[in-house]
Fold:
Amino acid sequence: MSDPTDTARSATPDAARWPPRVVVGVDGSPGSRAALVYAFIAAARRGVDLEVVSTYSMQTVWIGGYPLGVPAVATIRQEAEARVSALVDEVRADEAVRAVPGTADVATVVVVSVGPAAHVLVEASAAADLVVVGSRGRGAVRSAILGSVALHCVSHARCPVLVVHPVAAGHARDRTVIVGIDGSDASRAALRAGVVEAARLGTDVAAVTTYEMDDAWMDLSTVMVPTADEVRGELTRGAESMLKEVLADFRADSGGPVPDARVVVAEGPAADILIHWAADAALLVVGSRGHGEFRGPLVGSVALACAMHAPGPVLVVHPQPDQAPVRAAQPAAAGA
Structure:
């Protein structure tokens, strides 16, 4: 039987007036089920509602100016709503979900609409705290590369997007939250989000920054090149200063305990280093764009590489002009 708070509705223009919530996209694939599990837990820890979004397409073949077949729209929608509601009930009863305090009380709403899933999720992101998607769904191209829906959400959503990757059975994850920083506004937003997530999980934060000592094709006798120690020292000071400021802001906003946090400086390509550090982490958090030379409208190359290849959940954070106050963290269940 469905939870009494569960309802079904169609996507409507007044969705922005709904209270803050976690939005998750489902399509019946194993990846979307894993995303729904994560979304339930995320909603419980935030103390917000959960909106479960599913879409379907209406393809009519026209011959001689007349449709060959007119689909029974109401029937299709009802069947889709029934399948999604059944999945919501199944996941709510999952042991991993039930182990987290508050998940039984998460109010859920099922949204079934016509159209591309990516567009619907991006629209829903305007009034969401978080969008959760599986790394791959039921698309025609199902390879190791990030699925088209996840890629579109990571690139265009107007709130943080969490990409859930399949995890091997029995694989134990460390509880540390890894955050990639490079001094940019996007990485500051990522660090802030990482500290908040660590507080919700009751764990610590590792702020990771990287550098590469490039071989320049020039006459080095005329150029003052800093040593590796000088570069590491400068990066360490900058990262520690940013971390100190973000922790102070978190303390002022939340009034709760501040997570333990440390700075890690590593040499090598940023994406490779972050993916390595995230191998056993609870969560990897990255900014949507950093200080790279190419800063177009889409997500940056480091964030994209992490979202595609990191073995665990990846949270991509877009800088927000006005950060809302931090919600009080919900108690985390040990081992959840």
Remarks:
- Residues 1-17, 139-145, 293-298, 328-336 have pLDDT under 50 and may be disordered.
- DSSP finds nine helices and 13 strands in the chain.
- Residues 7-164 form a domain with the Rossmann fold fold (CATH 3.40.50.620).
